[in-house]
Structure formats: structure tokens, C-alpha cells
Amino acid sequence: MDRSKEDLNITHLEDEDEEIIELPHVDNSHLIARFSRSLVGIMFNSEIRSTDALITFMPRQNIWDVEGRVHGIDLGNSRFQFDFDSEADLLKRWTPHVGETFPNNKIIWVRISCIPTHFWVEENFSTTGKCLGDVKAVDARVARVQVSVNADKRLKFSAKVKLESSEIVKIGLKYEKLGDDALPVDTSSMMKELVLSC
After folding, report:
1. Is-contact 51 43, C-beta < 8 A?
2. Is the pLDDT of residue 147 over 90?
3. Is 21 among the domain residues?
4. Do 47 and 92 share a domain, yes or no?
5. In angstroms, rounded to a whole number, what is the distance separating the alpha carbons of residues 108 and 12?
6. Is residue 74 helix, strand or coil?
7. What HEC string does 141-171 produce?
């Protein structure tokens, strides 16, 4: 087992051993009402982007143009919340949500290259897509799959696929329209390969 996997296992064990603090039932309806004009999000590619900078610059003129009418909060773990003074300034309505997994997923199309065309069937692309995240759609005609990728995990740019003929083919994974919402990228992950059974 490599060192990073050991660290993850140790962290996981430590999390299991931690005492869970149970919070009492309280009336928080006033807080839910207060945050009804909020936007909650996650900063993708947080290793090179700053949540503090996002909170500072997004309200400014020529970006959102709501400076002085919105208040940003750093929620930790690359998550943020903007509380808008006015309904008209709100971009997306906030809804109460509990859980550390929100919002850390992005739905994106991934083109898959180097799979022989006689294996271009929905089941093969769906199986390949599952190594990236939760499969939402498959377009086998153009060798692509839509997946919900976890922003806390590194993107994969290649994989190895075992065909029915037992041949192993190295495939490429190209993320469409990733743009400025780039997810964490580890350049060494471009060299790592994953063996899949199709």
C-alpha cells in the first residue's frame, strides 16, 4: 500500500473513533428565513484558487455588480455562501441542506477516445464512465458519457480497458467545456492507468 492510501486509511480510522456530538433540537426557522436569499457553492481547483478572493471579487462591478448588497462567507473545505440583500440580486435560491458532500459534484461530458468503433455500445461507455463518477447519460454515437464528478477527487485523463477479446486498450478521457470551473488536476494522474473490465 502506498503512503497516500495509508494516510487515507488512518484518517478514516480516526474519523470512526471520533465522538459524535449530537446537537439539540432548536427552532432555526429564523435562520432559514434569513438565508432564503443565499447562494452556496464550492470552489473547484482550490489548490490554485482562493475562496477569499472569490468572496472579495465576485460582488464587484463588471462581475456580479452587487457590491454592498451581498455578504460572502467562507464555509471551509472550499465551500462558500453569498447572502443577498435583495431577491432581484439572487442568482440561485438557497435551500437548507445538511451534509459535507454538498456541493462538490459537477456534471460534465467526457469524450472517450481509442475504443475501437465496433465496441461503441452504451454498456461499454457506461462501464467506463462509472470509473469517473455517477453516469447520467451516454451518447455512444460520438463516444462520450455524461458523469457527475466529485470535485474532491482528481480528474483521470486515461484508463486501460479490457475488451471482450482480452485485448487491453489505453483510452483517453477529454472533459468537455470544463472552462473556468476546472476540477482538481494532478498531472501525475495523466500517467496513472486504471484497468477496467468491459
Report:
1. yes
2. yes
3. no
4. yes
5. 29
6. strand
7. HHCEEEEEEECCCCCCCEEEEECCCCCEEEE
114: CB partners within 8 A, 6+ apart? 169, 170, 171, 172
pTM over 0.70: no
Condensed to tens digits (0 to 9), the pLDDT of residues 31-45 reads 888 888 888 888 877
- Lowest-pLDDT range, 69-73, 107-111, 158-162, 193-197? 193-197
Residues 130 and 167 in one domain: yes
User: Does residue 93 have a pLDDT over 70?
Assistant: no
Residues 6+ apart with CB under 8 A from 164: 119, 198
Show which of 103, 128, 149 is a domain's final residue: 103
Q: Is 99 found in the same domain as 116? A: no
134 in Cβ contact with 175 (< 8 Å)? no
Q: Number of folded domains in the chain?
A: 2
Structural domain harbouring 123: 105-197
User: Which of 49, 77, 103 represents a domain boundary (last residue)?
Assistant: 103
